[in-house]
């Protein structure tokens, strides 16, 4: 049975980032203490940048058990890793290049391997191998970080797209006419299997869909993220203004 969301409202993006960084340190540390490793999926977009930077600086940098942390991406644009729009590049620049995480524990989406359907299938295989899954098993991440667009999309699960209805595959392609790149994205089975999900959402333009998502509006993809485990929404005051 999904738990009720925990909503954390901070005055600014900086304060939101501080709160989110503290929550991530606590969650990663607890996962490693309980299971010997933490399986974490990062979000893309711009909101997580400051949270990443805070995790890569003392004191938080020294508190994270980086050698037991495994990092994945909940979605990725199908561009080269050095492309300005790459979620991988953003995470490396803001965090991963500055912390002692073993390279083999960074599971980049292999966007150079072909069109989105091929990349999605390859990344699903990466997940199945990393989690040592049986054929019909779904990976249970310790923590999945997510953002939300003004249209209510999360990861690359956009309103009105076939990816929203996927129940079998773990990773699927996502193509949106008005966006410049094909993408691949985790599906709801993966998001909703997580031990914990944390949304990081800032900005007044997102307030209507934040309210709709927290009301469980099924037309809003972010509102369909109802994990078996904990669900946290880290908001700035602007994004929370309609709550
Ligand atoms: C992506 C993200 C996407 C993002 C939202 C919010 O690859 O674009 O995963 O879901 O989280 O679009 O983006 P901002 O944080 O830039 O507002």
Sum this structure up briefly.
The chain starts with 5 loop residues before the first strand and ends in a 7-residue tail after the last strand. The chain is globular and about 40 Å long. With 243 residues, the protein is α/β, with parallel strands linked by helices.
Characterization of the model:
- It is a single chain.
- With 243 residues, the protein is of the alpha/beta class.
- It has a single domain (6-236), classed as Rossmann fold (3-Layer(aba) Sandwich), CATH 3.40.50.
- Helices cover 30% and strands 18% of the residues.
- It contains 7 helices and 9 strands.
- The protein has helices at 13-35, 48-55, 60-63, 87-94, 116-130, 188-193, 207-214, and strands at 6-10, 38-42, 69-73, 75-77, 143-146, 171-174, 183-186, 196-201, 230-236.
- The strands form 2 sheets. The chain has a 6-stranded parallel β-sheet with strand order 1-9-8-5-2-3, covered by helices on one side. Strands 4-7-6 form a 3-stranded antiparallel β-sheet.
- Helix 1 crosses helix 2.
- The two termini are 24 Å apart.
- The mean pLDDT is 97.
- The structure holds 6-phosphogluconic acid.
- The site of 6-phosphogluconic acid (6PG) has 14 residues, from loops.
Give the neighbour order of strands across the main sheet: 1-9-8-5-2-3
Number of helical regions: 7
The low-pLDDT segments are: none
Mean pLDDT: 97
CATH topology call:
Rossmann fold
* CATH-derived architecture: 3-Layer(aba) Sandwich
Rg, rounded, reads: 16 Å
| Sheet of most strands | 6 strands, parallel
Number of domains: 1
Which compounds are bound in this model?
6-phosphogluconic acid
Helix content: 25-40%
- What's the shape? globular
CATH class: Alpha Beta
| Secondary-structure class | alpha/beta
Question: Percent of residues in beta strands?
Answer: 15-25%
| H-E order | EHEHHEEHHEEEHEHE
Distance between the termini: 24 Å
Secondary structure: number of strands: 9
